[in-house]
Amino acid sequence: MHDALPSASRDLDLDGDTLREECGVFGIFGHPDAAAITALGLHALQHRGQEAAGIVTFDGARFHAERKLGLVGDSFSSREVIERLTGANAIGHVRYSTTGETVMRNVQPLFAELDAGGFAVAHNGNLTNGLTLRRELIREGAICQSTTDTEVILHLLARSRKPRIVERFLDAIRALEGAFALVCLSNKKLIGARDPYGIRPLVIGELDGRYILASETCALDIIGARFVRDVENGEVVVITEGGIESLRPFPAVPERPCVFEYIYFARPDSIVNGKSVYEARKNLGAQLAAESPAEVDVVVPVPDSGVPAAIGYAQAACVPFEMGIIRNHYVGRTFIQPTQSVRELGVRMKHSANRGVIAGKRIVLIDDSLVRGTTSVKIVRMMREAGAKEVHFRIASPPIKHPDFYGIDTPEREKLLAATHDLEAMRAYIGADSLAFLSIDGLYRALGFAGRNAERPQFTDHCFTGEYPTGLTDLGIETPKRLSILAEAD
Ligand code: AMP
Question: Which pTM was predicted?
Answer without folding.
Answer: 0.91
